[in-house]
Amino acid sequence: METNYHNPVLLKETVDGLAIKEDGVYVDVTFGGGGHSREILKRLGSNGRLIGFDQDEDALANVPEDDRFMLVSQNFRYIKRFLKFHGIKKVDGILGDFGVSSHQFDVAERGFSTRFDADLDMRMNQQSEISAFTVINEYDEADLRKMFSVYGELKNAYAISKTIVAARLQNSIKTGAELKQVIARFLPKHKENKILAQVYQAIRIEVNQEMEVLEEFLLQTPDLLNEGGRLSLISYHSLEDRLVKRFIRDGKFEGHAEKDFYGNVDVPFKKVGGLIVPSAEEISQNNRARSAKLRIAERV
Ligand SMILES: C[S@@+](CC[C@H](N)C(=O)[O-])C[C@H]1O[C@@H](n2cnc3c(N)ncnc32)[C@H](O)[C@@H]1O
């Protein structure tokens, strides 16, 4: 196992949030380096079970030697289907620590990091057909604009998209450095890192369909959890956190919660505690924790 694969964020708080029962069945939908999974296994008895999901084949290197654990190398958007395939209909808790692992950021060729020059890739699942290259070279201008504006929260999404579309008529844009050169006039020195990070975030969310996947996943959780079962979910950007927050509050992503015949709110979850964020100490030791937001909910 690679020692620096990933440093788990809010480790104790997230696993505490699952209120682990020794013989329960748990799912870690973002196995990664297995930091959260190993903590769950410590708290499970010999009859407990843990199923991990990760769509990145690199995560296979981190699987613990433990009969109680199984890794499903699939996208968690298919959680119900794959749990059913393995004979599991109900579980007692689901942990999600969304986004990209440190390992994915640190391997230059994966193309996730603005620190390196690499081919435009950013696929969490190496088998996926759509990469950052496809998005930058094949998406039409309106789709690029929407992506940069919604996922990157970039003010000049319109001009950036127009510039990319004009540039790729000459030559396709193959690498991070080429993309940076194309959009250079939108990257003033004092804001270069910030804007480039927003550009990369937008592309990554699009390549991995992160918003659609999160919605599909959340919608399956009420059916999967036993009564009293827990969700413990860490988000890293506001779009993600907004979906999680609304889903826990209203059981949906838009509009108000459903009401029953008597006018009582009818939602699948009750929230457990408030928003949890990492301490200043954790952030000082692990800068990647700085944007983490943990929400916990219980199936009613
Ligand atoms: C932030 S890391 C999780 C780190 C992990 N909690 C640990 O302690 O090492 C997120 C992981 O989830 C995986 N992932 C993200 N979205 C996924 C999805 N839709 N389906 C399956 N795995 C996903 C990524 O490949 C990555 O390895």
In short:
Helices cover 39% and strands 14% of the residues. It is built from twelve helices and seven strands.
Mean pLDDT: 96
The largest beta-sheet arranges its strands as 3-2-1-4-5-7-6
In the CATH hierarchy, the third-tier topology of the largest domain is known as Rossmann fold
User: How many structurally independent domains?
Assistant: 2
The CATH architecture name of the largest domain reads 3-Layer(aba) Sandwich
State the fourth-level CATH superfamily of the largest domain: Vaccinia Virus protein VP39
Features:
single chain; alpha/beta; Rossmann fold; DNA polymerase, domain 1; seven-stranded mixed beta sheet; 12 helices; 7 strands; 39% helix; binds S-adenosylmethionine; methyltransferase; cytoplasm; rRNA processing
